[in-house]
Amino acid sequence: MKTWILVLILLVITCPNAPAQCLPVAISVADYTTQKPLQTQLFVRLYGQRKPLGNSNEAGRLVVSLPCSATELIVEKQGYRPLSLPLTIGQQSAIELPYSLPLALMPLDQQAIDRPYSQSEQKEYVLKSQKQAEKATEFRLFKITDAITSASIVAEVCLFYTKTRQKNCFTSGNTPTEIPFEQPDIVAIEVKAEGYQRYQGNLILETFEGKRRVYEIKLSKQLSIFTAYIKSDQPPKQVQLYDAVTGQTLEMKPAGLGQFTATVEASRTYQWRVLGNKNQVLYDENLIFLAGLNQRAVAVKQAKQTQTPPPLATTPTEKPLFGNTTPVVYFEQSTYELSPQVRLQLENWASWWRQNTKQKIRIEGHTDNVGDARLNQLLSENRAKVVATYLFNQGVADSCVLFRGFGPHRPTAANDTEENRKKNRRVEISSLPL
């Protein structure tokens, strides 16, 4: 009996159930409007299941390590819209210092009459029995806007009527869409727009006087954050982030010693620069961000001679790597896990790149067309990022690597057979001149 007890104790010690921790983060949560810190509950999604991560304190802070396999960070607080941040971690962080991660929650719209409000705030309600004006019809105009800029958004709006069980979907654009209502009802509202978090609300209509009103529904963008740690013998004078296409400058906010953060857009190319105290360029890199959390850590030294920042990079002409062939690695369906064979391929290619420092590396992830297109887009981005991370760990300079995902939109073969779909579940690698 004692032997079995000893075996069980050893199993508990040597086979822990806790997932491996990869990325230390210092999370701070605040009210979007007032910037006051919030005590919140935080969760991560692991293998499709939601797991508690911890609670932010009275200062809105929580320092914690995110699991390597986590795919989503979820922040919740009663009275606020929940926040979802996609995660693609995969590999152990190169630094022990936690990355700064500032988050903001938007207050929920409370239940009201004749105004959309958050569905989670629905309380038990019985429509009042009122005499309607003869043939009275209420007209409501739906205007969908960005929560930050108030600019109009093209969005799909669906109304679900409680009484008739009918569904009415329409597209709202720059001009508000007018919808007639002919009887009292409690109507569910769902709004979806590309690049934004989904809105779910309710509407109580019970007084009919033949009037027109405008409903404005504000959407929060699907959050993508760039958080960077810059190790330097002296604090950098400026950290700049440019949209490589439009040239627009994004503010990178200081978030502690050597820490900087910015809100970015996924799948866009940016140029990131670190300037020294004499405006010399200490670091310069092109980046393509994934949806959710993106982190970078670099070490720089103050240069002695002043340099003028180079012009924004233009798209270079692609050159094939290893002669006329393009290196390709393949993946099993619905995964972004590197097989032992692929790891060996990458190690061999990394050896070539370490000796050819005048070449940039472009990594492009792809999927077949099976399943949800949005999930396939995320899967392709994860495949590209995992390959890039593995090359980083093999000594390839991260400043030389560009990576992005294209989902199912660039197949190399028709998706008509399983054999052809296997060819589309891939990452292609090509070289570009610096």
Biggest β-sheet: strands ordered side by side in the sheet = 8-14-13-10-11
Total number of strands: 27
- Main sheet: strands, sense, barrel: 5 strands, antiparallel
Structural class: mainly beta
Mean pLDDT: 82
Number of helices: 4
Q: Please give the radius of gyration in angstroms.
A: 26 Å
In helices, the fraction of residues equals 10-25%
Strand fraction equals 35-45%
What is the terminal separation in angstroms? 68 Å
How many independent structural domains? 4
CATH topology-level fold name of the largest domain: 60s Ribosomal Protein L30, Chain: A
The first-level CATH class of the largest domain is given as: Alpha Beta
Task: Describe the model.
There is one protein chain. The chain has 434 residues and is mostly beta strands. The chain folds into four domains: 20-105, Immunoglobulin-like; 117-122 and 136-219, Immunoglobulin-like; 221-315, Immunoglobulin-like (Sandwich); 316-434, OmpA-like domain (60s Ribosomal Protein L30, Chain: A, 2-Layer Sandwich), CATH 3.30.1330. Helices cover 13% and strands 40% of the residues. The chain has four helices and 27 strands. It has helices spanning 2-14, 340-354, 373-393, 418-424; strands at 21-31, 41-46, 49-55, 61-67, 70-76, 83-86, 99-105, 117-118, 138-146, 155-161, 167-172, 177-181, 185-192, 199-205, 212-219, 224-232, 238-243, 249-250, 253-254, 259-263, 269-275, 281-288, 292-300, 328-330, 359-365, 401-405, 426-433. Strands 8-14-13-10-11 form a five-stranded antiparallel beta sheet, with no helix packed on it. Strands 3-2-5-6 form a four-stranded antiparallel beta sheet, with no helix packed on it. Strands 19-20-16-23 form a four-stranded mixed beta sheet, with no helix packed on it. It is globular. The N and C termini lie far apart (68 Å).
